Amino acid sequence: MDQEFRSRLAEELAAEPEPPIGDLVGASVRQGRRLRAFRRFQTGGVAVAVFAVVAIAAVVASGAAGGAPGPQVAAPGAGPTGQTVSPRVYQSFDPSTKLVPWQPPAGAPATGPQVAATPEGVLELLLSLLPAGPTGAYAGNDDLLVQTYLDPGDGKGMLRVNVSKVIGSGGTAPTGEADARCRTMGLDACPAPDEGVVYRQPLEQGGEIVVRQFDDNCIQHAVVEVTRADGIRVQVNIAGCLAWDGTRNPPAPPVITVQQAAGIALDPRWNVTLAKSIVDAGAARFPNLPEIA
Amino acid sequence: MSVDGEFVDYARVAAPRLRRTAYLLCQDWHLAQDLTQTALAKLFVHWGRIHRRDSPDAYARKVLLRVFLDHQRRSSSHEVVVDRVADGPAPGGQPELRLTLIEALSRIPARDRAILVLRYWEDQSIDTVADLLGVSVPTVKSQSARGLSRLRSLLGADDEALLALRD
Q: Measured between alpha carbons, how far is A264 from A270 in angstroms, rounded to an integer?
């Protein structure tokens, strides 16, 4: 019967007045080249400004922490205020809770010469922000989307993080322009403004933090999305399953809370450029990072 | 041959089918052309990695699906709400009034439509569709069944045999 369904679709398609395809391939190549150029310009042209912003943020953060960064000690389940929270209770997330950054992860490289971010570098930074526990199943792609498993002590789960620049630096773009830039950059993560939203608050420095929950998408069971005034968007996806194993996405409990994900997403170092030390460390640690399809 | 040249060769072969799939998803040839162009442009950006894969077709299909669903999400129109849809079969003996399968597809939610097109036009397994959409297998099964049920309702008894598909 499947064949009959397909045959009928084919018959109906054949009866449709299909317009000529024209120079579709040529247009795609030209659009693709513009995309490539835009990305190179974007990651290279703003590096100096970004370095300054990150450096200032790091200095401020270090001051707030009361000392210079030391080795990271991220206790499992430790929230932004140091209180112990269950790592599996994000479902009971209280929207009245104010989501704030982690205390700066001591010892994690914060400043230095900036270079274009790589998936390996993004993964390196992500791992430095996670609660303690074994990690693995690393993957990433050129869209700066990375994946890791984490086992906080009672079973592994999956996280995916994406970093992108959705609006121009120096101000907030009009909604239409932001959407256009999002499309131009070929981003997939342009959800409707209120899709799945359970929490939305402006950030003190401009921009906003949004929490979305999707019951029908285990990869994005809960999503914390920070869009800063400089146009950088950081999306932390808390999965309710593991990656595709060839036959299915095995179910797995979420491994961090929304509060913890917010702490990760609010880290000021996220950008489409990263400290060279982070990128180099990522390249050395993940010389053959598998691609997220 | 350069990597870009390899992409052009691939795209020339893949574009017609991708565009037809896009048309089944959106029922608009102009939009289908745009969706296909955007999907191929994205493919071009990552072709250096993708062309080493065994099956760039799978990646192309996935990108097209994402482009379509993103367009649906961004579009202010989303689904066209039709409150006078012929939920039942058209009167017998008047085949010109019968809904085509493509028209019927256009009247079900975009995500359900995508699942049906992937499964029955692109001949993808439930597992593959779940992977493409980033959802669980049970979700694909339930949405597939819901889409088929809606199609049956739209097409009527004459097409029961046609739609006796595997859920």
A: 9
Q: Is the pLDDT of residue A69 over 60?
A: no
Residue of A nearest to B73 (CA): A192
User: Measured between alpha carbons, how far is A45 from A142 in angstroms, rounded to an integer?
Assistant: 18
Strand partners, A211: A199, A224
Find which of B23, B70, B142 to mutate to test the A interface (most A CBs within 10 Å of its CB). B70
Cα distances (angstroms) measured from residue A40 to each of A29, A46, A49, A153, A217: 16, 10, 15, 41, 32
- ipTM over cut 0.90: no
Q: Which residues of A touch B70 (CB under 8 A)?
A: 188, 190
Nearest to A24 among B15, B121, B123 (CB): B15
Contact predicate A235/A214, CB 8 Å: no
Write out pLDDT tens, residues B10-49.
999 999 999 999 999 999 899 999 999 999 998 998 887 7
pLDDT tens sequence across B87-115: 344 444 444 445 788 888 988 888 889 99
Q: Is the pTM above the cut of 0.90?
A: no
Does any CB of chain B come closer than 8 Å to the CB of residue A39?
yes
Kindly report, residue by residue over A210-241, the tens digit of the pLDDT: 998 877 778 888 999 999 988 899 999 999 99
First vs last C-alpha separation in chain A:
31
Beta-carbon contacts of A6 under 8 Å, excluding residues fewer than 6 positions away, are B120, B121, B123
Q: Between helices B3-26 and A2-15, what is the axis angle to 10°?
A: 100
Q: Please judge whether B46 and A218 are an interchain contact, meaning their C-beta atoms are less than 8 angstroms apart.
A: no
For residue A270, how many other CB atoms are within 10 A of its CB?
A: 25
